[in-house]
Specification:
The protein is an alpha+beta fold. The chain has helices at residues 15-34, 60-72, 74-84; strands spanning 2-10, 37-42, 50-57, 87-96. The longest helix has 20 residues, at 15-34. The radius of gyration is 14 Å and the shape is globular. The two termini are 13 Å apart.
Length: 109
Amino acid sequence: MIIDYRAYSFRPSDIQTFLDLFEKEGLPPQKRILGGFVGMLRHDVGPMEQLIHLWSYDNAGERERRRALCAADPEFQAYVKKARALIVSQDVRILNVLPYSPLAKLKQD
C-alpha cells in the first residue's frame, strides 16, 4: 500500500475558503473516483496556513489510474479551477506503508 501525501499552503485569508470548497465540491468527486480517503489534517503547531490530505492506494499503478480518471471528471475539473486560485504552494509525496503499520489495514474503497 502507498499513501499519497498532499500538503497545500495558503494565504491566511484563504484557508477557510478552501476548506469549505473542498468539503462541498472537491471531496465528493474525489471520494467517488479515488476512494481511499484517509483524511484531511491541519497543524495545531507549525505552519498554520497548511493543510495535508492523505489518500491510500494499493500501489502506484492504481494511484495513476484513479488520478487520471479524476482529472478527466468534469465535476473535479470545475473544483480544481476554483481551488487552484487559493493554493500558494503544494508538496506531493508518495509514502510506502510498512506492513506492521496500522495504515496497512486500511481498505481501499
